UniProtKB/TrEMBL annotation:
Protein's name according to its UniProt entry: Osmoprotectant transport system ATP-binding protein
Molecular function terms from GO: ATP binding; ATP hydrolysis activity
Keyword vocabulary terms for this entry: ATP-binding, Nucleotide-binding, Transport
Family to which this protein belongs: Belongs to the ABC transporter superfamily.
Organism listed in the record: Hoeflea marina
Source lineage: Bacteria, Pseudomonadati, Pseudomonadota, Alphaproteobacteria, Hyphomicrobiales
PANTHER family assigned: OSMOPROTECTANT IMPORT ATP-BINDING PROTEIN OSMV
Record domain ABC transporter: where: 2-238
Length: 315
């Protein structure tokens, strides 16, 4: 677990707290997205976890150990770090970039080589094609994949990701978000990410921490935050479409009733979101939709009324 205990950060010469008495517990194996207006202290908070910044007061603990007692270089080898512009070494091949931390840790050539292949595969790049290339010979999305692979190289328990998809075009971004989320779950990392993108926070975060002026306004699951914003600021930050965002997190399967006798009309899949079901219902002005599996078996029905009830139940 990563634990921030009443952490405050004042930058020299600045009259205000960049981070102000922050308490935050991040469970192992979960992803927490830090979000809030520009200058609210997200990046500073994240950089205090790998000691790129030192707290002015308070403590940061990793698995119970106060990190102020750990050598920053040792600590950073235990913590993967992914940043917006990737930060690959431009004159080094992809394989050398990915091998940065293993080399620092003194791994032998064979072990490092195996790890490079394994990681490039994991992030969807063909090692045979990519190993000898230079960063400028890759697309922005491919470079981000390499940056991610490099951060995972020594299998760190924690990954810090600062606007990891900020410089990527919207279509590639959505694809990378989906892929990275699956990978992070598969390798079961504890992740802290900073983002400006609420949809990204909702998609990637098991929990979202909403900050303002260095303070934590709300810390909860995306569903809970969308259902019950802590105050008017959070409510307006989430936007007027927060009910729709919430429907996109709930699967049809969890709300459907048994299949009807004589169904006809539009269908959705059990794993579709209620947002998709709503869209289908509105598009064809229906009372409800049949729920079918990919191989065509009818397994349920979702009525318009049930859908609206689902929204108001926790909304
Ligand atoms: N190195 C620094 N020296 C002085 N002040 C700083 C420094 N880094 C950040 N700050 C200030 O601390 C506050 C928090 O900055 P931080 O970068 O943590 O916010 P942020 O939420 O990540 O912002 P953004 O979304 O714009 O990246 C801001 O007021 C910023 O101006």
């Amino acid at each position: 677990m990563i634990k921030l205990e009443h952490v405050t950060k004042n930058y020299e010469g600045s009259g205000r707290h960049a981070v102000d008495g922050l308490d935050l517990d991040i469970e192992n194996g979960t992803t927490v997205a830090l979000i809030g207006p520009s200058g609210c202290g997200k990046t500073t908070t994240m950089r205090m976890i790998n000691r790129l910044e030192q707290p002015s007061a308070g403590r940061v603990l990793v698995n119970g150990e106060d990190i102020s007692g750990i050598d920053p270089r040792d600590l950073r080898r235990r913590i993967g770090y992914v940043i917006q512009q990737v930060g690959l070494f431009p004159h080094m091949t992809i394989e050398r970039n990915v091998a940065t931390v293993p080399r620092l840790l003194g791994w032998d050539k064979a072990r490092t080589g195996r790890r490079i292949d394994e990681l490039l595969d994991l992030v969807g790049l063909d090692p045979a094609v990519m190993r000898k290339r230079l960063p400028h010979e890759l697309s922005g999305g491919q470079r981000q994949r390499v940056g991610f692979a490099r951060a995972l190289a020594a299998d760190p328990e924690i990954m810090l990701m600062d606007e990891p998809f900020g410089a990527i075009d919207p279509i590639t971004r959505v694809k990378l978000q989906d892929e990275f989320r699956l990978i992070l779950k598969k390798v079961s990392k504890t992740v802290v990410m900073v983002t400006h993108d609420l949809d990204e926070a909702i998609k990637m975060g098991d929990r979202i921490a909403i900050m303002r002026d260095g303070r934590l306004l709300q810390y909860d699951t995306p569903q809970a935050i969308l259902a019950k914003p802590a105050d008017d600021f959070v409510r307006s930050f989430l936007g007027k479409d927060r009910a729709i965002k919430r429907l996109s997190l709930i699967e049809v399967e969890s709300m459907m009733s048994p299949a009807r006798e004589n169904p006809k009309g539009a269908t959705v899949y059990p794993g579709d979101s209620l947002h998709i079901a709503l869209s289908t219902i509105i598009a064809d002005d229906l009372e409800g939709v049949d729920v079918v599996t990919v191989d065509g078996h009818r397994v349920g029905y979702l009525s318009r009324d049930a859908l609206f009830a689902a929204h108001t139940a926790a909304g």
